[in-house]
Every structure is written in C-alpha cells, then in structure tokens.
Amino acid sequence: MFNDRRLLHIYAIIFLDVVVGSIIGPVLPEFVRGHTQPQLWLALGTSLFLGVQLVSAPLLGKLSDAYGRKPIFRLSALGTFLADCLLLPVRMGTYLANRLSDGLTNGLYATVRSAITDISPKEALFRNLGIEGAIISLGFVIGPAIAGLLITTLNLTEPVEQARYVVMMAVGLSGLNVLLSFLLRETHPNDGAANTRGVLWTDLKVALAQSLNVGSLLARLRQKEREHPGLLNLVLMQVALTMAVGYYNYFVAYVSLGTLQMNATDISYFFMYFGGLSVAISYGFYGFIADRINQQRWIFWLAAVGAPVLASYGLVGTSRVWLYVIVTIDCFTYSLIQGLIEGLMAQKTTDTDRGEIFGLNQAMQGLASFGTTLVFGALSIIDLRLPFAWFAACLVVVAWLARK
Questions:
Q1: Which residue ranges does UniProt annotate as crossing the membrane (predicted)?
Q2: Domains and CATH numbers, the chain
Q3: Does residue 235 contact residue 221 with C-beta atoms inside 8 Å?
Q4: What is the mean pLDDT of the chain?
Q5: Could you give the CA distance from residue 253 to residue 251 in angstroms, rounded to a whole number?
Q6: According to the 3-state scheme, what is the secondary structure of 43-58?
Q7: What CA–CA distances, in Å, run from 334 to 51, 148, 240, 285, 304?
Q8: Residues 158-181: pLDDT tens digits?
Q9: Which H or E run contains 385?
Q10: According to the model, what pLDDT value does residue 350 have?
C-alpha cells in the first residue's frame, strides 16, 4: 500500500505529535481553575497558540521549500519538547507560556502536507492526505486514553497531581518525537541544491519580513491564485472550516465547566470514542471513496448537513447520551471535509512553491483560529452554549463557498 517508507515515518511523527498535544487536553482546566472566568483563560491560551502561527507557518513553509522538509520537522519537534517542559509547574502562567512557545514552531503541518505531497503519486494523493487525517484522529484517541490510563493506574486523585504526571508523560513522548524527526530522510526533490547553499541569513530575513507583514498574506495568495486558479477559494473554504471546527479547542472548557460537568477521566473516555470512530470512518472514506467522487460537491453536502449537527452540541443539556449521539453524526459529516480541501489544494501546488502555499494556508488558518477563539470566548461569557451557533454559521459559509 505504501511504496515509500518515508510516508510511514511521517505518519509516525504526526501520530506522536498529536498524542503529545491531546494527552494534556483533559488536564488543561487545572491550569486555570480558581481564576475568574476560566474558560476565557483557556481561550486566550488557544488564541496564543494558533494566532502566532500567522507569522510562523508561512516562514517555516517557505524555508522548507528552500532548505528541505527535514530541518522543519526537527525544529518543530524540538520546539514542542521545550514547550512541554514549561508545563511542569501547573500554573496559568506556564500554560500561557507553553501555548505561545509551542505555536512559534507549530508550522509542522504545512510541512507535513508538503512532504506527503512530495512523495505521493497523483492517484494516491487524496488517500495519503486522508490517512493523515485519520492518523490525527487516532492520536486524539490515544492521547486522552494514555492520560486516563495513567491517572487510573497510579490511582491519582489530586487534580494538580494528575496534571503533573500527564505533563511528564507528554514531555517523554515529545522527546521520542525529536528522535524520530532527526531520523527522517528528506522528501523534497530540490534538497541537494538547497543544502549546498547552506542557510543564507539574507533569505531568512526576507522570509521573516514577509511573514511579519500580515497585510501581505492576501496579496501573496492572490498572486498564487493567478498561477493556480481556484486556490484562493479553497483557502477561504479552509478558513471558514477552521472557524467552524474551533469547537475542538472550546470543547474541553464546555464539557468540564458547563452543565455536563465532565472530569478528566470522563473527557478521556469521550475523546477515545470520538477519535476511534473518526479513525474508522476516515480510513474507509479516504481509502475507498474520496478519489472516486466529486470532492467539491461532497464538501457542500457534508457542510450543509453538518451545520445543524454542530449547532446541536449546544442543546445537549446534561445528557451525555445525546452528546455521544451527536458526535457520532459529526464523524460522518463535516469531520470528513478537511482532507477533501487539502487534497484539492495539493493538486494546485508544485515542487517549487508547495511549502509556501501550505504555509500561507496554515497562516490563514491561524488567523481564523485566533478570530474564532475571540468570538467564542466572548460568547461563552454570555452563555456557554452560544459558541456552537457561531461554529454552525461558519460551516454554512463553507457550504456556500463550495457551491462556487
């Protein structure tokens, strides 16, 4: 199934990276508990993590085109390891510092998608990018499962102690990912020429200046639109989808601080179910269906049907049964859209600008995530259920853009 073993190596790095990120999810409320409006502090941390990618993602994506994917994998893995070390004191200040520092090197996924596209034949592109999504979902299962297993096995009852042990596990796993990243073989076809030049600081300064100039993002995307017609609409679709799936970042605060009152163990079990089902559905969809359909039309219908499903999260009340019913439908609808957009976007890239395009796209996603975090943070002050109306409205925009 995989003719190039580098693909499996990349999947392993993705898997560990997501596990490291998701393992700490169930214990994050402990970092802000006791402070007024804790959901706002969680939202602020998320906005720091995602907003800083507005600068870091285009920079890392462009550098990966010039110097290869491997150095960016290494930098991102080291950044995650050091950021996780900051979490060892369970305090709100360390949580915010972690979110900021981790976001600076989190251009990984622009490079991941570029690397997968580098080594994927055209007929396997949707499958390989779809499997990336399934791997991410699997990581979301295993992360909370490890957290729950660790808490149960060690019989940890004190919430702060639970958070401390879970963070130590995350630090260990992120250290393992550093090793995997240093062992990865290059995927970029121009790697040899780039490496003979070495790192030119003038190139770095130019790339950094472009990344810091937020106003130039759309101008650069319009330029790429002229080279690859249809790209800008896909990026805008991705932006709207990112704003809709901002509920992933809001979910822990909603289920722990709202009427459901779920603790770390409950949250772990929920994400195990969510991720496990998502893996199975995504693997089947992208392995056997995605490359045989009209992807644009499917994006429209998945978004149109998924919008009321997303809004329904705000109506579950205290019923965990309904929560599980809604998340089941979720996995069959808009959870499948991401890979379709990425596959269509990958087809509009070349070896010379793939990292830059995915980097610009991730920067726009960072901007969208930052914006949607501010919106759902403000709405949550009024009512913890209101953000889901916003998320559903953003998904309606995805359906509208998909009709073009």
A1: 7-28, 40-60, 134-153, 165-184, 231-255, 267-286, 298-316, 322-345, 357-378, 384-402
A2: 5-187+214-402 (1.20.1250.20)
A3: yes
A4: 83
A5: 5
A6: HHHHHHHHHCHHHHHH
A7: 23, 27, 12, 13, 9
A8: 888 888 899 999 999 999 999 999
A9: none
A10: 80
